[in-house]
Structures are given as C-alpha cells and as structure tokens.
Automatic annotation (TrEMBL):
GO terms for cellular component: plasma membrane. GO terms for biological process: Ras protein signal transduction. Residues 215-316 form the Cyclic nucleotide-binding domain. Coiled coil: none annotated. This is Rap guanine nucleotide exchange factor 4 isoform X3. Residues 72-147 form the DEP domain. Residues 523-605 form the Ras-associating domain. Transmembrane segments: none annotated. Belongs to the RAPGEF2 family. InterPro entries: cNMP-bd_dom (IPR000595), cNMP-bd_dom_sf (IPR018490), DEP_dom (IPR000591), RA_dom (IPR000159), Ras-like_GEF (IPR008937), Ras-like_Gua-exchang_fac_N (IPR000651), Ras_G-nucl-exch_fac_CS (IPR019804), Ras_GEF_dom_sf (IPR023578). It comes from Drosophila pseudoobscura pseudoobscura (Fruit fly).
Length: 869
C-alpha cells in the first residue's frame, strides 16, 4: 500500500476523525445519567444523511477498496465534473455506479441489489450525494466518496498496483458482507422517507419485514400494511442519548430494532434494560399521561422504529395488546390491562392497573394519573385511596409520600428543568393529599402520622414560593383537619352502654347530640361479662379494647383464678350457639347478636356454657299500642333513625369487617350497630305478630307491616324494607294461615311483589335492578353489600405472584362507592305530621325483640296451633 494511502487508511480506521455530522450539539447525551435533560428526537430523519456518527471500520475499508478500483479504472464513471459551474471532484451518477457494481460482482444480479449495497455505504457516510439531499438512488444524482469531499482527506492520484491488488483482495473477501447489508440499508432508507414518498414496492418491502417483528406479531395483516407507511426509522449514534424524559408528554411508541436502552426512574436509577425486539412508550400514549420513565440509550448505534401519537391513536390504540407488564430488576412490578372507554372520559381506551407492588402503584398514580381527572376522581386513584389500608398501611403511605415530597434533598446541583420537575412532583403530592382527604374524610385525620405529615407539608408549602398556588389547597385541608379535631374534642369522652337486657347500644352520656353520632375507637362502652354460673361483672372499656384485655379483666373481677391462656371470651347467642373471639379482636360488645351475651370461660369448659333465661324473653322496649301509631309516621321515624346509623358507618368498616377487624386493630362498631338494627327490625315484626293472641289484631298488624314496608320503600330505606318483608316471610309468621287468609287480596298481592323484590335468586337481581334506578339519598340493603365484599374477598386472592391483586381492590372499592353514592345527598324527608313525634321516636329506637327462632316458632304455634287434617 502506498504511504499516502496508508495514511489515509489509518485516518479512516482510527475512526473518530471522519465525523458523520453528528456532534455533541446534535444529540444530548447522558453518559452518567442525569435524566432531566430535554431530548432532541430526530422527528424527521433524513434518508440522505448517515445513521452513524463515524463509519464503521468495515465500511470504511470497503469504501476505500471500491474507490481504489473505481479510480484505477480509467474508463470509470468516477470523474471530476462541473455542475452548475462548480467543479466536483471524483463524482459519479448513481446509475453508473450501479452499472459498475453489477459488472464487477457476479453475486449482484439486479440493479436494486447494487443500489442497496451503495446505500449501505451512504448510511455510514462513506459515500454521499454531492448536495447531501438524496439517499442512494439508481438515478443520475451524483455521488462521491467522503474522502473526495472538500475538507475531507487529501485527494489521491491513481492508486498504485499494490493498493489495487489489496483492494481487489478485500473486495473478493468482503463483498458478500456488503451484499447482505444491502436490503437492510434499503429498508432503513425507506423507513426514513416521509410516508407519501414511499412507493408501493417499497411499502411491500417494509411489510415483509414487519412480519418478523415480535412486538407486532399480534397485529393483523391489514394493520401491518398500514404501519408500513407510517413507521419511522430512528438511529441514535451515542450511548447515553436520552430518548425522552420521565414526565414528558408522550409523543411516540417505539420498538427497539438494535441495541438496548435503560429505563430510568427518578430516585431509583435504572430499573430495567430493554433489548432488541422490546417495545416501550405506549403507556403514556394510551393513558394520555406523562412518561413514567426516562429512556436512555445503553449502547452506541441503537436502531428504533417509531410510531407517532396521531398514527398510534388512529391505527393501534384500539387493537393494542391487552396486557402491559412493567418490570424492575427482572421482576414484574405493575401489570396493566386495557379497559373499554368509560362514559365521560375523553380517551378511547385506558390501561388500568390489574396488579402491582404497593410502591409502584403509588408511583404510577403520582407520576401519571394525577391532574388529568377532568370531572371527578380517576377511578384508579379512588380505588387506591379506598383500599390501600389492605396492602399499604397508612404509616407506610405517609412515609412514601414524604420521600416523594423531599426528593430534592438528595440532588445537588439543580438545573431549572430539574427544579421544574421537582416542583411538579411536590404539587402532585399535595394534590394526592387533598384527594385522599376528600375520599376518606375523617379516617385520614384519625391517624396521627397523617396529621403530622399535613402540618409538615403546610409549613413547607408556605416557605416555597414555587408552591404559591398550592397554599389554598393546603389551607383547605388544614381547615378540614381543624374542624375534625374540634369535633373530636367536643365529643371526647362519649360513653355507650350495652344494657343487660340486650337493648340496642345507646349513648349513655356525653355532650353529643343524639343524632349522627359516630362511635369512636376511644369512646367507652359499658357492658356485662358473664361466667358459666351466670354471675357477671360490669366493665367499662374503650371500644378498641382487645378481647384479650377484656378477658383478663373479667376473669380477675369474677375471680376465675386461671391464666389467660386457659381462658377465652365467647358470645353465647339466645339459641345457645357459641362463638369464640380472637384475642386480638376489638369492638367486642357492639359485635354481639341482638340477645347475645358475653361470657368468659375456661377453654375446656365451653360446652358447659348455657344461655341465660332472660335471653329467651323479649328485649325491653317501649310498651305502646302499635295500632294507634300512624304507619307512615313509623316509617318516617325508622328512616330518620336508620339514616343516622347508616351515616355513621365509614366505608373502611366494610373492609375491616370483610378482612377481619383484628387484622387492622380497628373497630367496626358503627357497622355492627347498623347490622344489629336490621335484625332488630326483622325480629320485631315476628315478635309482635307471634305475641298477639287476637286473630283480628294480628290481621290488622300484618296489614300495617305491609303498609310499613311500602312506606319504607317509598322513603328509599331499603334496609328497613328488606327487614320488614323478611320478618313477614319468617317461618313463624308465614305459617299463620288463619291470619293470612283474612288479609285482603289487594294486600296479599302487594306483599307478593315485595317478596319478589327481595328474592335472592340470580344474585338478588330484582333488587339490584330496582335500586340501580334510584337516586340518592337512599339506605341500601346492607347485608347484600357485605355479601358482595365477602364474595370479592373469598373469590380472589389479595396477592398474586407477590403483587397486590388490584382487581380485587377495585371490586371492593365499587361496593364501598355504593355507600358513598347512597348518601351523596342529605335526607330531607317531609314529616307526615308533627303530633306524636316524641312517642314514635322513642318507640322505634328500641323494639321489643325475641331473636330465638325456636321460641318464636313455639309462640306462633301457640297463637295458631297447626290445624289437624
Ligand atoms: P411510557 O410511560 O409511555 O414511557 C416510559 C416507558 O418505559 C413506559 O411507557 C414503559 O413502556 C417503559 N417501562 C418499562 N419498564 C418500566 C417501569 N418499570 N416503570 C415505568 N415504565 C417502564
């Protein structure tokens, strides 16, 4: 090789000197990922430009060899030519280069193959169009070797024989490699052309290639054909280039054709590396959300296929794969599934969370799902807020939020973009806080860790001028918190009692008004605990006291002289059934059945426990002649009374009840009282009827109760409606043939309609259809909501492969939302008449009730003995 050419070759192979027009100013890089820089995405790649920063050694050498032979050939097309009065050294038209190559190499059969091989040189910058406007075309456009460009390497003369020999040798060895690269280079060139410039043959070529891409395998042929015209090829020369940043607006979806990229998340660093064949970036497109991660190129010369948002929405949105799995460090952390459009949402489809780790779900919420809930709360956020206590205790949630809020303390130098990102993040934490308080109300303020966090947040927001707009949100939350605390202080020291005769739990003393009184964990309750010989002690404990403590204290007072491990706390129902409490169970007295009694017993002697005599008798109630009370007024006061009980139940109590309150150490007292009330009304109906000896009075009562059910239905108190109708359907009542025979057919027909409405078949379909048409305020049939919760709980695991099964959480939140819906408007019933108000009110607040079915049936037999045939 001549010295001159040797120099030239050295220059070429040391590789960095011939830059392909990529400079640091063209692409931002993030060698040490500082993923806050704005990316510069080559939105409109130019097929005339190279895709590498420098030519690869192989292509440089190939170019050198081809050029050497072309220059050596006197008759060759590579000549100095004048174009528009300007001399261009050693250039040749595309057509002649193609002719020359077809002649040179026996493996090249078609002109298209030769053109592809020249394009392989063009895409690495070894050969260029003289004006850098064209990729390689088998046309009369002029091309020249990079070496001959002005400003490039010095011009060289006729190559010496030894160089020609070396060039020939090289071409013999390496031409087939170039031959193989031709089709790919052609394809990349087509994919960099604007769609309207792609010919039908070119589209066919692209289509044939798309068939082999795994990320597209689920798509139909017609969609792949559409994609052929809109896929864009992007090449990025340098590792460290940021394709897009976390928090950016999503503009494209990508498939990685060559190379690898890192998925980087603020505060976590690189969480995953995606490889050839993987795709990314559709989450932001489908959810119309900010990017969940920054994508940084891990290698030089990465190749990507890109589909821009408008095309993605038009072609892919509706057919995209149903499930999307996000991984971190090789493990699934979030599994999303596409769901159909919900009314009122502007995007056609959304990915919703099916399962995930608690922390990733929270990150997903904070990063991508806040701030876009036009017209109400994002259902995923609402589900999360209603159910997080199952998988992420409050203390952990507060910790995570505090970490997010203080993410800036870890970063040293902050660019304005970093700062903007951090401020946005802080704003989202504040929004989250506001929505949290909105969704769960006082339950958030009951946690000291939440109150501390809110106060810290408020102080920081006040001190940060960037968070000026957030001060009003924080003040609003603070005001609500202060109101809650004031209310709490006012009602502190409430005392409840569970009277010995099994009356409903009632407020014993305290400052609170009798209505809308919530039972709180530290309210005291006074109740009796019996032992096997029916002696008892009276205890007073806060509601949240554990069974273990009650057991120990009762054993001590009753002088049982046994260690706590030998003893248990047990309920004995009026029918003699027993159920043992777990040591860590709480709100014990409110959980008792209507006529149940609490016993402390030696574990081995449980069988010896018998119910008290008084448990078979009716509970005490106001003695009044029911006949004289107006039915409508009864229904009215029952509804007002039960509305208050229903209003006091927090949605969380349904979760505590379903998962077991001992898991949370939280009371379910308000829910207990409401459920107890259902049984009270139901058994009141039965008790009244079976304890009325006069047939005509019984007939009058049945008519009254049917009317009562009708009024309860009218007042939308479905809980009482069910209780009354179930009472009338109780075996002890339905068997009263003589009574029913005397009920006018008009009433019997109404009753049949009511029975059809409470028919449990097809999962209470009749009721569900009926209640589905009602508008709030309404009191739902609570036992069905609890059944739905239990069904969701028992039919679905809480954790799937180490991830929270969020579908289950969603099902539970739906039921909890029903409660919220029912009381989303306040009850404003017109009073039927003001006259006997006090009397009716005190009557309905405590009914005389026997809840032992055996006793009720026996009484029924007594009033109407079975007729002998
Ligand atoms: P998108 O939010 O549109 O942009 C960032 C992309 O990174 C995201 O879509 C996913 O396609 C991809 N990605 C891969 N793994 C993760 C991860 N663990 N967390 C977030 N995004 C991820």
């Amino acid at each position: 090789m001549s010295n001159k050419n040797k120099e030239l070759m050295n220059d070429i192979f040391t590789n960095c000197k011939l830059k392909n027009g990529f400079g640091p100013s063209v692409q931002q890089t993030a060698a040490a990922p500082s993923p806050t820089k704005r990316p510069l995405s080559p939105d409109h790649p130019n097929p005339a430009l190279p895709i590498t920063e420098t030519p690869s050694p192989a292509m440089s050498r190939m170019g050198w060899a081809l050029r050497t032979l072309l220059v050596a050939d006197n008759s060759s097309c590579l000549k100095d030519r004048k174009v528009s009065g300007k001399l261009i050294r050693k250039c040749a038209p595309g057509t002649e280069l193609v002719d020359w190559l077809v002649n040179l190499a026996p493996i090249v059969h078609t002109r298209a193959q030769a053109a592809g091989m020249w394009q392989a040189l063009v895409e690495e910058g070894v050969l260029t169009h003289v004006n850098k406007e064209q990729p390689f075309k088998d046309k009369c456009f002029l091309y020249r070797f990079r070496l001959d460009e002005e400003g490039g390497a010095p011009a060289v003369g006729i190559p010496q024989a030894e160089d020609q020999h070396a060039a020939n040798e090289h071409i013999r060895e390496a031409l087939s490699a170039l031959f193989q690269r031709g089709p790919d280079a052609t394809l990349r060139m087509i994919l960099r052309k604007p769609s309207h410039e792609r010919t039908s043959e070119e589209l066919e070529l692209v289509f044939e290639e798309l068939v082999h891409i795994a990320a597209l395998s689920h798509l139909s042929t017609s969609i792949k054909r559409e994609l052929s015209s809109i896929f864009v090829f992007e090449a990025h020369a340098q590792a460290g280039t940021i394709l897009f940043n976390q928090g950016d607006e999503g503009r494209s979806w990508y498939i990685l054709l060559k190379g690898s990229v890192d998925v980087v998340i603020h505060g976590k660093g690189t969480v995953a590396t995606l490889k050839t064949g993987d795709d990314f970036g559709k989450l932001a497109l489908i959810n119309d959300a900010p990017r969940a991660a920054t994508i940084v190129l891990k290698e030089n010369n990465c190749h990507l296929l890109r589909v821009d948002k408008e095309h993605f929405n038009r072609i892919l949105r509706d057919v995209e794969a149903n499930t999307l799995r996000l991984q971190e460090h090789g493990k699934d952390v979030l599994v999303l599934e596409r769901v159909a459009k919900q009314r009122g949402q502007h995007s056609a489809f959304k990915y919703t969370v099916m399962s995930g780790t608690p922390a990733k779900m929270l990150e997903h919420l904070l990063e991508t799902r806040l701030g876009q809930s036009v017209g109400g709360m994002d259902p995923f956020l609402d589900d999360f807020l209603l159910t997080h206590i199952v998988f992420m205790p409050v203390v952990q949630l507060v910790d995570e939020l505090a970490n997010y809020f203080h993410c800036d303390t870890h970063e040293d130098a902050q660019t304005p973009e970093d700062r903007e990102y951090i401020v946005n993040f802080k704003k989202r934490v504040i929004q989250f806080m506001q929505k949290w308080v909105m969704a769960v109300r006082h339950a958030a303020f009951e946690e000291p860790s939440v109150c501390d966090f809110i106060e810290d947040l408020a102080a920081e927001v006040e001190a940060d001028p960037d968070l000026n707009e957030e001060t009003s949100i924080v003040h609003n939350v603070l005001t609500q918190m202060a109101r809650y605390q004031e209310d709490r202080n006012q009602n502190a020291g409430q005392k409840w009692k569970l009277p010995p005769n099994g009356q409903p739990i009632c407020l014993f003393s305290g400052n609170a008004t009798p209505s809308k009184t919530v039972i709180r964990p530290d309210d005291d309750i006074i109740f009796r605990v019996y032992c096997a010989d029916h002696t008892y002690c009276t205890l007073r404990f806060p509601m949240h006291t554990t069974a273990e403590l009650i057991k120990a204290c009762a054993a001590d007072k009753l002088q049982l002289n046994r260690g706590p491990e030998d003893l248990c706390l047990v309920e004995v129902r009026s029918n003699g059934e027993r159920s043992v409490f777990k040591d860590n169970d709480v709100s014990i007295p409110t959980g008792l059945s209507l006529n149940g009694r609490l016993f402390v017993s030696v574990k081995d002697h449980l069988d010896a426990l018998t119910q008290l005599q008084e448990q078979e008798c009716p509970t005490e109630g106001v003695d009044i002649d029911l006949e004289i009370l107006s039915t409508k007024e009864l229904a009215y006061h029952i509804t007002l009374f039960e509305w208050d009980l229903f209003y006091a139940v927090h949605e969380y109590e349904l979760l505590y009840h379903t998962f077991g309150r001992h898991h949370f150490g939280k009371i379910t007292a308000n829910l207990d009282v409401f459920l107890r009330r259902f049984n009270e009304v139901q058994y009141w109906i039965v008790t009244e009827l079976v304890s009325t000896p006069s047939l005509s009075k019984r007939v009058g009562l049945v008519r009254k109760f049917i009317k009562l059910a009708a009024y309860c239905k009218e007042y939308q108190n479905l809980n009482a409606f069910f209780a009354v109708v179930m009472g009338l359907s109780n075996m002890a009542v339905s068997r009263l043939q003589q009574t029913w025979e005397k009920i006018p057919s008009k009433f019997r027909k109404i009753f049949q309609e009511f029975e059809a409405l409470i028919d449990p078949s097809r999962n209470h379909r009749a009721y569900r259809v009926f209640v589905g048409k009602l508008q709030p305020p309404l009191i739902p049939f609570m036992p069905l909501l609890l059944k739905d919760m239990t069904f969701a709980h028992e039919g679905n695991k809480t954790s799937l492969d180490g991830l929270v099964n969020f579908e289950k959480m969603h099902m539970m939140a739906q039921t909890m939302r029903t409660i919220r819906f029912c009381r989303s408007r306040s009850l404003g019933l017109e009073p039927p008449s003001p006259k006997s108000e006090g009397e009716v009110r005190s009557y309905i607040s405590s009914f005389r009730v026997i809840d032992n079915q055996r006793v009720l049936t026996a009484m029924s037999q007594k009033v109407e003995p079975t007729r002998k045939l």
